[in-house]
Amino acid sequence: MPALTPDDLIQMAEVIAERGGRGFLLSGGVDSNGRLSLSDYIPAVQTIKETTDLKINAHIGLCPENEIPGLVRSGIDAFSVDVYGCDETIREVLGLDARADDYLRVVEGLVRNGAPLVAPHICIGIHGGHLKGEQQAVEKLRSLAPRVLILLSLIPTKGTPYASVPPPSKDDVLSIVHYAKENLPTAKLVLGCMRSKLDRSSEAELVAAGLDGIVLPANSTVEKLRAEGYTIRKSAMCCSFA
Fold first, then answer.
1. CA–CA separation, 168 vs 4, rounded Å?
2. HSE-up (13 A, CA, CB side) for residue 36
3. What is the C-alpha separation between 234 and 12, in angstroms, rounded?
């Protein structure tokens, strides 16, 4: 069930903690401006952090600049922010009157206000399954030197305009992993959960290209990496905490 009020959020957090959970993702639907307003939930987040050991990862959308300091002070442990490199993608795919730099400013604002962990997300092939701005998105992050970068990929989804488009090719995904590794050498690169899983055969190749982690890898990938001498570490946490 959704947490429709701050009290709902506290109650749900208590249930998660009682069941032995380690944390949760704080997110929700954005409005027509791409914003997810969490200001009313700040006191609830503070209560949760004071009364439990839960880790909180917040996916905050195009958060207004004046809300960022309060969110950082609330005790949220990590912030997930979508980043784009092409204004056209934001208009045509997201249907928003916004620019790529608007999303970058959210990352900059979080860093400037001392957020403990900022995890930019780049969705490979989000523009109809083709590359369009992914490299530029990486370049925009270069001066911020993020500790972690989450790479996702388009999932062709029934009932959407992209239901029948192919997911990004293996070569396209590999090219972005290579580019991110080259331009963000200190960032941990993680293949996140929101990605096409129609073809898992290239997961080990992505690790060789510079990927540091994979959410829910195929068993065959784990076996192959172990056979090649990799040490596998498992973590039951959101990939933003890589």
1. 36
2. 18
3. 26
